[in-house]
Design goal:
Helix content: 25-40%
Largest sheet: 4 strands, antiparallel
Radius of gyration: 13 Å
Oligomer: single chain
Number of strands: 4
CATH class: Alpha Beta
CATH superfamily: Ribosomal protein S6/Translation elongation factor EF1B
Shape: globular
CATH architecture: 2-Layer Sandwich
CATH topology: Alpha-Beta Plaits
Amino acid sequence: MKNYELAIVMFSTLSEEEKLGTLEKVQNLITRFGGEIANVDDWGKRKLAYEIDKQKEGFYYFIQFNAETAAPAEIESRIRIMEPVLRYLIISLEDK
């Protein structure tokens, strides 16, 4: 198992329950593919470095988890089609 970090930026126009529902779906994806969540860091609403899809702000979340090497690709393929997610990135923490 390797350590990974998933960074997610969601649309700033989401309601509190939509935001938490999306976060729960992402966490369920991680555990579904054999991952173990170590930490969820909520950075709240932040200004984006540049405008994306006419959005200037977004909700930032950072999720640290352990998983097998095949899991990140599976997780990314499902996050890619989630409408509330503006941007995402999974990095390996062991390459640092």
